[in-house]
Amino acid sequence: MITKEQVLEALKDVKDPELNRGLVELNMIRDIEIDGSRVSLVVVLTISGCPLKAKIEDDVIAAIKALGAEEVRLQFGTMTDEERAALSAQLRGTANQAAQAAPGQAPALNPILAKDSPTVFLAVTSGKGGVGKSTVSVNLAVSLARLGKKVGIIDADIYGFSVPDMMNIEQRPTVIDSVILPVEKFGVKVMSMGFFVEDNSPVIWRGPMLGKMLRNFFTEVHWGEQMDYIILDLPPGTGDMALDVHNMIPQSKEIVVTTPHATAAFVAARAGAMAIRTGHEIVGVVENMAWYEAKDGSKEYVFGRGGGAKLAEQLACDLIAQIPLGQPENLPTEADYSPSIYKADSAIGKLYMEMAKTVDEKCKTKAPL
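Above: the chain's sequence. Below: its structure in token form.
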């Protein structure tokens, strides 16, 4: 006969997908009752509208049926305000300890921002808008995740946020007390201002508010287990947000995106010069919209040639990728549809995979602090 102890043991490996921690560890399994081969129990969710409720249900039922149960009756409950507050404090525990160990730092500073953090920050920047910087950011993030890396992306372009739409994310982040759980898509944890505005409303903020929101994306967001990479999709140019990143994350590395056009490369050089001036390592230059490939295989250089190589030479770094013009061949009816993510086996998807491998190789050896 199945015992309660066996049920709890079987459920130890079943995790809350957002927290990436076990349901038993989080005391989310309650009221287990066993009647022969029938098992009844209650799973207490963090919030009533938990977006991953169906996955939790499937995982719990599968784990219990593996014990030999013929029927599993599962009910859902919701944590009380007190339980959520306790969980929030627990999630913040490590961050609070880090802040207390460093007098003068802001409270609840996320340890991934510490100088000795193994997380690699990659700020993707450009001199001007319209060069495909966000497209490069999301596809680099997804490609790194396809390589097995733990990746997050922060849509730091507060005025021009676009990452949720580009990745076709309609789900909103779960908030437990004052802790925000990022949304995950294509194996990438995503945080964006776009999650917190209604109906694509404009954001009308001054510089200090932008910096505060960026800091909140670190201090209020539970990124979970140690991340390998955090990609920051910066707004174009050298404004307040770029400066905040340079000051807040001095160990951040940078990737500069341009088109082949001489003027785009000329303007992008300013963003690269800002990185150099603030002591940030430039991983390389990405030349986007490098050419258009016709059906007969011929290449049309719509925006000219040589801008990326010239910029890389000027910034004393490598041209790490040339990405042609193209639209992802994704259908809205597909389960993993997104308007901007290239499939791994597509021609452009393969270029992004090669770029991700190059970036990963370059970042394996961190510059001395």
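Confidence is low (pLDDT under 50) at residues 94-109.
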